[in-house]
Amino acid sequence: RSTVRMTGAAKNTVIKLLRDVGRVCESYQNKVMVNLSCKRIQVDEIWSFCYAKKRNVPPEFYGKFGYGDVWTWVAMDADTKLVPAWLVGGRDADWADMFMQDLAGRLKNRVQLTTDGHHAYLKAVLNAFGNDIDYATLVKLYGKEEDIFDRHYSPNSEVVGCQLAVIRGNPDTRYISTSYVERQNLTMRMSMRRMTRLTNGFSKKVENLHYAVALHFMYYNFCRIHSSLRVTPAMEAGLSDRLWEIEDIVGLLENYEGPN
Questions:
Q1: What is the pLDDT of residues 171-204, one digit of tens each?
Q2: Which of 26, 33, 145, 147 is the most exposed place for a label (fewest CB within 10 A)?
């Protein structure tokens, strides 16, 4: 609606453009994010909601995907800061398995993988990688909540420690971390208003969230210069030899040939 106010275009026109551009961004990245030579991958999942928050979902939609809680699974290369895989879905074992299968299919060599303690990862990683992975989990330990009035805005208290666990293979303990991918959570919330915890700009349809995430990662991977790299993640990973502009993303629409 803010875009409508700024441009004077009809709301349906703006939404259609989001879907069209998001679709081509997803298609393009699916084609180029293959045979990647990543070494250290960090994975996390970030919460958002569609239609309404879970407690406000009407009974006829309760438990149906796309109404209430929605999770975006994100994988990040710790070296190039590239995000090669993501998935908008639920948080159960089936979604974890789908996400890990997609991630594994994009990598050409053995990697070190770090996730949090979410149990769905354990079987999903085994199904996707077998024994050809160095896998560890990192679980953050939080101190006691001191101010109950801050819970609504800050659900977790101060981190007082971490638990590391080697699950498979021989991961280097120096690189067991989820710091980069957790920082990506902040980037997503800052870049997409619909991901903000307290917002009236949330997605009304999960398809719109899906395409917004695809557009976000297209911009993040190809257009946004990473401060620590001084190039884009795609350039650092060897997927692009130049800095993309917004016009380049829009230009993908002209050459779009439909879903893979």
A1: 999 999 999 999 999 999 888 888 887 777 788 8
A2: 147
